[in-house]
């Protein structure tokens, strides 16, 4: 973060005395009419000016070590020496501050450093709080507690609505032509019905996560729907194709309805791997608790087998030992075996990446954590907006996958034409 920006948490800098900062802020707030609701741009500028001025004055107190006019400052060798004048710009417009000066010129403010004229944006900090899952009411309370400013719900809505253009640009941005591995998963949220605001419906937000040829992960998009199926998935993959994706080597999902058919219709050369962990959960639903431990031990022989032939033999053994008792559990393996066994065609290093969708489930888990406070979203746009902000916060810390060079070398041997030097150079 630039030094010219206020801390993302919107708290006063930790070096400041909180009591002194609040005193300074109260003095400056009084100069603009006391605590009031932020609505118009002019008043917003006044509030920001009062807040920044209080922070600068608090910084000077911390720098000198004594309050203005205090006897403790006598004989210290340095003291306050009037004020300067400085124009600062942000998304709120332009304001004029009067930074305090000290006699020996050693004061170097951190909130707005010398020779800097931009402080970032105030509404961006509101968006940051919004992205961390705070509700409108919580953002109001936070700003009132820290800044003694009562921000109106309308202002918060305007600040967060500015993100919508970013969402649209992000959802339509060009993508790379090839992704070696792509994961898909969904999470359910509650959204008010557009035609009847009193009605709340469950919808699923589907996330597509890709690993590119350099080993970096990227969320390719978010889509929301009330139901899923081949037609829905077909629209998603056509969207990816329209944005530049020409090939996907391996796609991993959790058995979502219609997924394999939709993938094969748009990317016919893509191998589909269904999540084995989801399959284990699905199969054990048909097994009573008293036999579940033994049943799971026998299932483990299937997905830990060294070869496809050994896995098929383990499945036959599972069928022989448990098939008469729990035919539905065995059928869940048989019915999806083609897509559950895909990972056996790949080297061991690749199998650990594709037999489960843990990578994307971890992402969805973190997004669920930040949406717990929002039990019901007013509409689809609000839900996607918040999840987009979460994606941006989470993915900025992502790095190259560990061991990816080994994986790419093996994929290059398996797919020499699809991973030719020309293809790699274009990604």
Features:
elongated, two-stranded parallel sheet, alpha/beta, 2 domains, five-stranded mixed beta sheet, 427 residues
Provide structural commentary:
This protein is α/β, with parallel strands linked by helices and 427 residues long. It has 2 domains: 18-161, no CATH class; 178-414. The protein has helices spanning 18-31, 41-64, 122-131, 136-147, 153-161, 163-171, 230-242, 259-266, 276-284, 289-303, 308-322, 327-335, 337-340, 348-354, 358-370, 380-395, 404-414, 421-426; strands spanning 37-38, 80-83, 86-90, 93-97, 100-102, 150-151, 178-192, 200-211, 217-225, 247-253, 271-274. Strands 9-8-7-10-11 form a 5-stranded mixed sheet, sandwiched between helices. Strand 3 (86-90) and strand 4 form a beta hairpin. The longest helix is centred in the N-terminal third of the chain and has 24 residues, at 41-64. It starts with 17 loop residues before the first helix and ends with a helix. Mean pLDDT is 81; it is low at 1-18 and 32-41.
> What portion of residues is helical?
40-55%
Low-confidence stretches: 1-18, 32-41
Radius of gyration: 29 Å
- What's the order of the H and E elements? HEHEEEEHHEHHEEEHEHEHHHHHHHHHH
Quick overview of this protein structure:
The protein has 427 residues and is α/β, with parallel strands linked by helices.
How are the SSEs ordered, and which strands pair?
Elements: H1 18-31, E1 37-38, H2 41-64, E2 80-83, E3 86-90, E4 93-97, E5 100-102, H3 122-131, H4 136-147, E6 150-151, H5 153-161, H6 163-171, E7 178-192, E8 200-211, E9 217-225, H7 230-242, E10 247-253, H8 259-266, E11 271-274, H9 276-284, H10 289-303, H11 308-322, H12 327-335, H13 337-340, H14 348-354, H15 358-370, H16 380-395, H17 404-414, H18 421-426
